[in-house]
Design goal:
Layout: H1 3-15, H2 20-33, E1 37-39, E2 52-57, E3 61-66, H3 72-75, E4 77-83, E5 88-91, E6 102-105, E7 107-110, E8 123-132, E9 138-144, H4 163-166, E10 178-182, H5 189-201, E11 208-217, E12 222-224, E13 230-233, H6 236-249, H7 252-255, E14 260-266, H8 283-294, H9 302-308, E15 311-315, E16 318-319, E17 342-344, H10 355-368, E18 373-375, H11 387-395, E19 398-403, E20 405-407, E21 414-417, H12 418-433
Parallel strand pairs: 1-2, 4-14, 4-15, 15-19, 16-20, 17-18
Antiparallel strand pairs: 2-3, 3-14, 5-7, 6-10, 8-9, 8-11, 12-13, 13-21, 17-19, 20-21
Helix pairs in contact: 1-12, 6-12, 10-12
The protein binds cobalt (II) ion (CO).
């Protein structure tokens, strides 16, 4: 596969995944196409050496793994972690009354999006709807409205004369509701919205009880640049890392390497990971424990031995240098798009990297013939974090934080490099297979 074919597959993957629930569905399809078996947390597991499995928690976090044929207590787990969620807007629980005849959808801010980038875009809704079944049980279904349904029109410059000097500021309570339709006086906004869900889901509106609905951009991903060397899409942070890790796992040489391989993709990273399905929860440790017991390891000796010999790559995007804003970066630690994967380093452990894990990743890059870069944030700006330090602390597993250079992190339209995506996938294959 060429770098452009691989990037094209990335864009298809992202466009098929307009919410974390859809991302997990997309990942599940690819896993089951390659013989991975679905396990449920409420069943007991019988695992075989060489077997391929996945587990989903609450629809939007997924751990997939291959049981190795090598002894786990001596080899440990090879883990790549990433996140399925992206910052943005989520639909509030109650539909407000129409204002001036216009039905507007109230939204809450999820994580830290660049709000101004949500204006004047062809937005729509995707996520999960919970309802009561005929038998009275709680069921859920995925909703994906493909056409542009919503919009946040900008104020004209004639009413906002200083927008280019002061930047676009949106008042979070009053100026974010999304315009949906004009309704007449005898139409109730709540009923109108439920009917819309009913039409899309074929579920009786009266049975709908609640939802987790994400606002997404309907514009598909694209290549850009004079040599088509860049991609632009929504949610590249962090679906690009999920796609790279999954592609590495599903490589036939990797699958048959005999190592115990794990891809762990979590929801809720953008809001701190502290939930039952987030990286701060018990999901991954539960799965690792169950794998080791199913393969006959003892809790007292063998599992700690396996964990002590495990390694995790925490993959999330890095801040690419944007030459129009040179002062935003540490001048000695700029990282450039299409110059290779980035090892992220922070002495305060906002990133989990230390010299040994850094050196391991660097050596896998060298083995794969891939150039790498090192990033350190400006000292006078607060540094972001990832699932790396959280999982590493929870599991006691040596971890490195890496990721590809990305422009406009947390914009609704982010950009990254075609060659970086190809190269980080190569390095991940090397990590898994060796
Ligand atoms: Co991220």
């Amino acid at each position: 596969m060429t770098p452009h074919q691989h990037a094209n597959d990335l864009l298809a993957f992202v466009d098929q995944s307009p919410s974390p629930w859809h991302a997990v569905e997309t990942i599940e399809q690819r896993l089951s196409n390659q013989g991975f078996q679905c396990l449920h947390e409420d069943n007991s597991w019988q695992l075989d050496a060489g077997g391929r499995y996945y587990v989903i928690r609450d629809g939007s976090s997924i751990v997939s793994f291959v049981c190795g044929t090598q002894p786990l207590a001596e080899q440990g787990f090879k883990i790549i972690g990433a996140h399925t969620d992206s910052p943005g807007l989520r639909v509030k629980p109650n539909i407000p009354v129409a204002m001036d005849g216009m039905l507007r959808l109230a939204v809450e801010i999820y994580g830290g999006p660049i709000l101004a980038t949500f204006t004047d875009r062809d937005l729509s809704l995707a996520g999960r709807v919970a309802y009561q079944s005929d038998q009275g049980t709680v069921q859920s279904g995925l909703l994906h409205i493909q056409r542009p349904l919503l919009r946040l029109p900008n104020l004209a410059i004639h009413m906002n004369r200083s927008v280019n000097e002061d930047g676009l500021k949106l008042q979070k309570q009053f100026e974010l509701p999304l315009l949906m339709t004009r309704i007449t006086q005898d139409q109730l906004p709540g009923a109108y919205f439920l009917n819309l869900l009913q039409e899309t889901l074929s579920i009786d509106a009266g049975r709908i009880l609640s939802w987790d609905l994400n606002v997404f951009d309907t514009q598909p991903g694209s290549f850009w640049g004079a040599e088509n060397e860049f991609v632009a899409d929504s949610q590249l942070d962090n679906l690009a890392s999920c796609h790279a890790a999954l592609s590495a796992l599903l490589d036939e040489a990797v699958l048959t390497s005999g190592n115990t391989l794990v891809c762990a993709f979590f929801d809720h990273e953008e809001i701190g990971s502290d939930s039952h399905k987030g990286a701060g929860g018990s999901f991954l440790s539960d799965v690792l424990m169950r794998i080791s017991f199913s393969l006959g390891l003892s809790q007292q000796q063998d599992l700690p031995r396996a964990l002590a010999q495990s390694f995790m790559i925490s993959a999330d995007m890095a801040h690419a240098y944007q030459p129009n804003f040179p002062n935003a970066y540490d001048p000695d630690h700029k990282v450039f798009v299409n110059q290779g994967p980035v090892i992220k380093i922070n002495a305060n452990q906002r990133y989990s990297t230390e010299s040994i894990s850094c050196a391991h990743f660097a050596s896998w890059c060298q083995a794969a013939g891939v150039a790498f870069q090192k990033y350190s944030h400006r000292c006078d700006l607060p540094c972001g974090s990832t699932i790396g330090p959280i999982l590493s602390a929870r599991l006691g597993i040596r971890t490195v934080d890496v990721g590809n250079p990305l422009w406009a992190m947390h914009s609704i339209r982010e950009s990254a490099g075609v060659y970086d995506h190809f190269n980080i996938t190569k390095v991940m294959k090397t990590f898994f297979a060796t």
